[in-house]
Amino acid sequence: MSLFPTVRPNSIKTSFRPPGEEEVLRAEGLSKTYHQGANSVQALRGIDLILYRGDVIAVTGPSGSGKSTLLNTLGLLDIPDKGALALDGIQVDFHDTGGKEHLRSRCLGFIFQNFNLMCVLSAVENVELPLFLYPIGRKERRERAAEMLISVGLGDRLNHRPPELSAGQQQRVAVARALVARPALVLADEPTANLDSQSAFGLLDLMHSLNAGLGTSFLFSTHDQRLVDRVCTVMKLQDGRLS
Q1: Strands 108-112 and 185-189, how do they pair?
Q2: d(CA 185, CA 207)
Q3: Per-residue pLDDT tens for 188-222?
Q4: The whole model's pTM is what?
Q5: Of 17, 18, 126, 196, which has fewest CB within 10 angstroms of its CB?
Q6: How many contiguous H segments (helices) and E segments (strands) does the chain have?
Q7: 48, 28 in Cβ contact below 8 A?
Q8: DSSP code of 9?
Q9: Is the C-alpha dihedral spanning 149, 154, 156, 160 positive or negative?
Q10: CA 237, CA 45: separation in Å to the nearest integer?
Q11: Which residues does residue 33 pair with via DSSP β-bridges, in sequence order?
Q12: Mean pLDDT of the chain, nearest integer
């Protein structure tokens, strides 16, 4: 059922999965304008998007096309001027801070291009951070974080701090942290920007493996043609519009 009856169903960009597949995200008419003094920049222009469970989708486009704004809005970090969004079947109230925090912690994981790891914490301590939002004990938090690091091939680096890890290993820690709470959707902003080719391909292979094993959906923005060439579904964002 459409969140906005005025939106034509055939205007919705999807991954072209068969009807009846489980939706993890539905966005309709998302628009966002930034005002800078007398100037205005329309970053998003009526974005319509459906993601299904198990999708792995790349969003490409030139700098300034709105990719980061799109991910921040879908990730409930920015508030759109217009439009509606549903995550895992729950409609988002962008003005309900507590409700957004609950949805973000339950439905979403994030991977950042600069990793955003805490250097004073070990790998396993970084990964368990999202679990502090859940009513589980320290022992279970640590076990789940360790299991996730093992699943991304870092079982022998649990107690290493980020400065002791390579860029590729740090990105794997970031992936483990994004997945440890078992979100329905992981959003990644330029996840290979700071990686060499071997690490970039390794990250994409890891995402596909976790996607197949856990059913997690991935949506990532990228300029990296290495990734675009290896993803089945690619969408282009140009001047705030998806195509």
Answers
A1: parallel
A2: 12
A3: 988 887 778 887 788 788 788 878 887 889 999 98
A4: 0.84
A5: 18
A6: 7, 10
A7: yes
A8: G
A9: negative
A10: 10
A11: 42
A12: 86
How many other β-carbons are positioned within 10 Å of the β-carbon of residue 146?
19
Tokens of 112: 């950042």
Distance from CA of residue 72 to its chain's centroid?
A: 9
pLDDT in tens, 140-193: 999 999 998 998 889 999 999 999 999 889 988 998 999 899 899 999 988 887
Q: Which residues pair with 221 in a beta bridge?
A: 59, 189
- The residue type found at 195 is L
Task: Give me 57's structure tokens.
Answer: 């989708």
The dihedral built from the CA positions of residue 111, 90, 22 and 26, taken in this order, carries a sign that is: negative
User: CB under 8 Å to 196, separation ≥6 — which residues?
Assistant: 167, 168
Provide the percentage of residues in the chain whose pLDDT is more than 70: 92
Contacts of 44 (CB under 8 A, 6+ apart): 30, 31, 32, 66, 69, 70, 73, 80, 240
